[in-house]
Design a protein that fits this description.
This protein has a four-stranded mixed sheet with strand order 3-2-1-4. The chain is 45% helix and 16% strand. It is an alpha+beta fold.
C-alpha cells in the first residue's frame, strides 16, 4: 500500500469538502475544526463550530452548568466539545475507502468493502490512521484562509478519539494546536 498516496488522497478529500463549505452560510467565525474519530472501527468525522452556533446554545450550557456543574468555556467546556460541533461531509476516494474498510476488518474482524482487505496494514493500521489525520491537519492549518474558511484569530484544528478523557484529548491536541493557544484555553476551563 502506498501510504504517501493515501495521505495525499485523504488530504484532498478534506480540501474538497472545505471548498464546498467555504460557500456555506455557516462559514463565519469558525473557531474550531476537529477530526472526531472512533479508532475502534476506523471512523473519521470532520466537524466544526462557529461563534454563532455556540452563542445560540449558551442558555442551554448555562442551565447545564447550574444543574450538573458542566463547564461552558475552554478545553473542558461545551465550547470545545466535538460532540457539540456540526458535521462537514466529505467524499472518500476509492483508496481512502479501501483503507478505512480494511481498518474496520483488522479492528473488528468483518469486511464490508469491495475486493479484499489490505493485509499489509494489519500490524500498523492505527499508526497509519493517526498519521494520516495529523498530516492533514498540519497541512490545512495554514491553508484555511486560502480555502475561503472564515476563521477567528484563535482558530484551532485538532483530532480526538471516541470516549476520551479531557487529559487524553489535550494530549492529542498538543500535536496540532499551538502551545500558547492551548494554555489560554486551558485557563478558560478553570
Amino acid at each position: 500500500m502506498d501510504i504517501a498516496m493515501l495521505k495525499e488522497e485523504f488530504y484532498q478529500c478534506i480540501v474538497e469538502a472545505l471548498k464546498k463549505f467555504s460557500v456555506d452560510e455557516n462559514n463565519t467565525d469558525v473557531y474550531v475544526m476537529a477530526f472526531d474519530c472512533d479508532s475502534s472501527v476506523g471512523m473519521i468525522s470532520l466537524r466544526y463550530r462557529n461563534r454563532q452556533q455556540f452563542n445560540s446554545e449558551l442558555n442551554t450550557y448555562e442551565d447545564y452548568n447550574k444543574k450538573y456543574g458542566w463547564k461552558i468555556y475552554g478545553l473542558q467546556g461545551s465550547e470545545y466539545d466535538p460532540g457539540e460541533f456540526e458535521f462537514i461531509n466529505y467524499q472518500k476516494t476509492a483508496l481512502v475507502k479501501h483503507f478505512l474498510d480494511s481498518y474496520y476488518y483488522h479492528a473488528v474482524g468483518e469486511y464490508y468493502g469491495e475486493g479484499t482487505p489490505i493485509k499489509e496494514i494489519k500490524n500498523n493500521y492505527k499508526t497509519i490512521f493517526w498519521d494520516m489525520i495529523v498530516d492533514t491537519i498540519q497541512r490545512l492549518k495554514e491553508e484555511m484562509k486560502s480555502l475561503g474558511i472564515h476563521t477567528t484569530e484563535k482558530f484551532i484544528m485538532f483530532h480526538c478519539d471516541h470516549d476520551q478523557s479531557y487529559e487524553e484529548v489535550e494530549k492529542m491536541m498538543r500535536m496540532t494546536v499551538e502551545s500558547d493557544i492551548l494554555q489560554s484555553l486551558r485557563e478558560e476551563s478553570k
